[in-house]
Amino acid sequence: MSETAAWVDLEVSNLVRMEEMRQLSQLSLVASENYSSPIVRGFEGSIFADKNAEGYPATRCASGCEYADQLEMLAIERAKIVFGCEHANVQALSATIANFAIMNELFRPSDRVMAMRLQDGGHLSHGAPFHASGKNFRWCFYGVSKSDEQLDYDEVRSIALANRPAAIICGGSSYPRLIDYEKMHQIARDVDALLWVDLAHTAGLVAGRAIPSPFPHADIVTTSTHKTLRGPRGGGLILCRGSMAKQVDRAIFPGLQGAPKMDLIAARAVLLGEVQKPRFQEYCADVLKHAKALERGLVYAGATLVSGGTSSHLLLINLLRCGTTGVEIERLLSEGHIITNKNAIPFDTLPPSKSGGLRIGSAALTTRGFREEQFFEVGVMIGKVITSGRNRDMVADLRSFVKKNTAGLPLFNPKWMT
Predict the structure, then answer these.
(1) Is the peptide bond prior to 216 cis by the omega test (within 30 degrees of 0)?
(2) How many CA atoms lie within 13 A of 296 on its CB side?
(3) Which of 43, 190, 303, 342 is an S-S bond match for 355, by CB 3.0 to 4.6 Å?
(4) Is 14 exposed, middle or buried (0-12, 13-18, 19+ CB in 10 A)?
C-alpha cells in the first residue's frame, strides 16, 4: 500500500495494517487459504484494472483491447501448458461462478446432475439446497462409506446407473483423500454422462505434479486460483476438451458475467508462470509431506481423523468422538492464535453452525516456510487441545508456540521465489 493511499484514507489503511499484523502474528491452517507471491499480488490492481475488455480476444465489445487480448491469450496458453488441457477460460470471477455458469449452459432444469454430498466432502455449489445450483437443477448424491469414510466406487456406480445423470461432479471442499479419476471416468461413460472435476482444493498439487491429473479422464475441470495453487484469491479457471470450448466460453460471457477483471487475469498469468518452475514442484511435495506430519502429530495426541488420515493437503478431524464441536475447538484455537475452520463430517449429527469436525490444511504454512517438525508439533498441540477436555493451559501453550514461531516469519518465504 502506497504512502499516498494511507494518507488519503486513514480508516481503510489502518484496517489493512491491522489485517497484515494479524496474518503475520497468527498461524493459518485453513485449508482454503494460502499466500500469493508479492509479484502476483503486485499485478492485481495494475493499470489493467481500469480497462473494459468485455468479450474475448479479437471479439471485444470495445476498442483499445490489443494488449488485453495479448494478456488473456498468454494466460490461456499458460493454463493449457500447466494442466495439459485443450482449452482454458480464464475470465470467471470465482470457481463457484464458473461452476454455476457451466450448469446454466450445459444443463436444462429437468436434467439430473450427480455430486458428492456436502457433509461427505462436497461443495455447496454442487447442488446444496440453499444454493442457486440446488434450486435450479435436479440432483442425486453419492458419499463415503461408513466403514472407512472413503468413496466406494461400486456404490457410486450403482447410484449413477439408477439415476442416469447428465454429468457426474467429483471433487469438493473437505474430502481428504485423492479421487480415482479413471474409475469415475468409466462410471460416467457407462451412463453416458460428462465427467466434471472440481479441482479447487488440489489444483496446485496437480500443477506441481505431486498428484495425478484429472486429464485426460475429465471432460471439464473447474478450479479457483488460490488454495494449493497459491494465486490471487479472486478468480476461477475452466479447463476442458477442445470440442467444448465454445460452450464453455459462452457459459461465462455472455451467459453469466460481463467484462472480465483484466488485472486479475494479469495476476493469474504471472501465477501460471510461477507454477511451471521447479521450486513450485518442491513446494507441492512439501505440502503433502507436511500434511502427513500434521496427521502423525494429531494421531499421536489421540485425535480421530476422518478416513484415518490424508492423501492431500487437507485433514478433517472428527470431534464428536471427544464430545466437543467444531465451533468450540475453532474458538479455542483462535484464542491460541491458530486459525482453522469448523466443518461438517460424514454422518454428522450436529447443525453446520456447530459442526462435528474441524478442517485444517498444510498449504499456507508451507508457503510461510514452516518445517516438517513444526507441523508435527502443531498437530500434537491441536490434538491435545481436543483430547484434554479443552484444557485452557493448552491454549496458553499454543500462544507461546505461535509467538515463538512467527517471530520474523514472512507470509511468503523468499525461498519459493527462486
Answers:
(1) yes
(2) 12
(3) 342
(4) exposed
Q: How many residues does the chain have?
A: 418
Q: What pLDDT does 5 receive?
A: 62
What is the arrangement of strands in the sheet containing 87-89, beginning at the earlier edge strand?
Answer: 87-89, 236-240, 220-224, 194-198, 167-170, 112-116, 138-142
* Chain position carrying cell 488473456: 72
Residues 6 or more apart whose Cβ sits within 8 Å of residue 78: 269, 272, 273, 276
Closest by CA to 121, choosing from 74, 48, 166, 174, is 174
Q: Which of 352, 125, 309, 297 is nearest to 223 (CA)?
A: 125
Measured in whole angstroms, how far is the alpha carbon of residue 223 from the centre of its chain?
A: 7
Where do the domains of the chain lie, and which CATH numbers do they carry?
Answer: 42-274 (3.40.640.10), 278-417 (3.90.1150.10)
CB count within 10 Å of CB 138 equals 17
Distance, CA of 238 to CA of 49 (rounded, Å): 21
Three-state DSSP class for residue 115: strand
Q: How far apart are CA 307 and CA 241, in angstroms?
A: 33
Enumerate residues 6+ apart whose C-beta is below 8 A from 343. 174, 316, 326, 355, 357, 358, 359
Asked if 228 and 235 touch (Cβ cutoff 8 Å), the reply is no
Q: Which triple of cell numbers denotes residue 22?
A: 494479524
pLDDT value, residue 1: 59
Q: Are 231 and 225 in contact (CB under 8 A)?
A: yes
Amino acid identity, residue 9?
D
The pLDDT value recorded for residue 127 is 86
C-alpha cell at 67: 494488449
Q: Retrieve residue 81's grid coordinates.
A: 501448458
> What pLDDT digit, counting tens, does each position of 154-213 carry?
999 999 999 999 999 999 899 999 999 999 999 999 999 999 999 999 999 999 999 999
Gap between the terminal Cα atoms of the chain: 24
Query: What pTM was computed for the model?
Result: 0.95
Contact 262, 226 (CB under 8 A): no
- Helix, strand, coil % (nearest 5) of the chain? 50, 15, 40
Identify the three-state secondary structure at position 221: strand
Q: Which of 401, 313, 407, 353 is nearest to 33 (CA)?
A: 313
Cis, peptide link before residue 214, omega less than 30° from 0: no
Residue 240's DSSP bridge partners are 87, 220
| Rounded Cα gap, residues 329 and 148, in angstroms | 24
